[in-house]
Amino acid sequence: MLTESQIERYSRHIILKEVGGKGQQKLLDGKVLIIGAGGLGAPVALYLAAAGVGTIGIADADDVDLSNLQRQVIHFTADIGKPKVDSAREKIEAINPDVKVITYKEWVTAANIAGIIADYDFVIDGTDNFAAKFLINDACVLAGKPYSHGGILQFIGQTITVLPGLSPCYRCLFPQPPPKDAIPTCSQAGVIGVLPGVIGSIQATEAIKFLLGKGRLLAGRILMYDALEMRFRDVEIKRNANCPICGEHPYITELKDELDAMTVCDLKES
């Protein structure tokens, strides 16, 4: 049952017929894992905390760097040198003491990701390298965990929600990682600072809608955003019968690290 303080804090949610007191309680009971406390993970964490998602996990092995502050809005100048998971936890707790924060100061790998995602209802991919993105997709598909993929580069962003067994997965679109160095990272090609705020806010919305069981998710649709043109495109996609992990004859049945798709430098991009 909501306390008087919670009724006041979440009053703008509670008056929504799609949320109400029962819906807010669902959010408070919800558990969302954010992998990557960088550009995408920052707005996701802030909005989920403000919304009252009861348990937020944050996985990231990196420390706050001066170059992060142009877009990673959960970190402040005084946080430079601090682990990103600690910096993010402090801001979440300052926004909303209702939220339990669980931190994982480590990179997700084939060896640890299944254990990390196990207790969560929904996963957010806020990473910035293909190896991590394919690993997150594979782990969530094999575990049956719904998740939101997000990607950003320069002025372009994209996001899709994956419901394993029900919707296309990331590998339905991109069966394999691109060759090493085929596509530049944000540190190589740049990214406009507000772009992850737009895509991350959409990812947070998807997580909230999933926990509430309301609205239409971006499952079976990829949403693309061009900041220079200020244009969104919503493209329907279908499951790929030849998908290597969720197709009719899958050959990916266990997790592995796609180390050939990234450099050691890429491992520190998040």
Task: Describe this protein's structure.
With 270 residues, the chain is an alpha/beta fold. It has a single domain, classed as NAD(P)-binding Rossmann-like Domain (Rossmann fold). It is 34% helix and 17% strand. The protein is built from eleven helices and eight strands. The protein has helices at residues 4-9, 11-14, 20-29, 41-51, 84-95, 113-117, 130-143, 170-173, 186-189, 195-212, 264-267, and strands spanning 31-35, 55-59, 100-104, 122-125, 147-153, 156-162, 221-226, 231-236. The chain has an eight-stranded mixed β-sheet with strand order 3-2-1-4-5-6-7-8, sandwiched between helices. Strand 7 and strand 8 form a beta hairpin. Helix 4 runs parallel beside helix 5 and helix 4 packs across helix 10. It is globular, with a radius of gyration of 18 Å. The termini are far apart. The model is unreliable at 260-270 (pLDDT under 50).
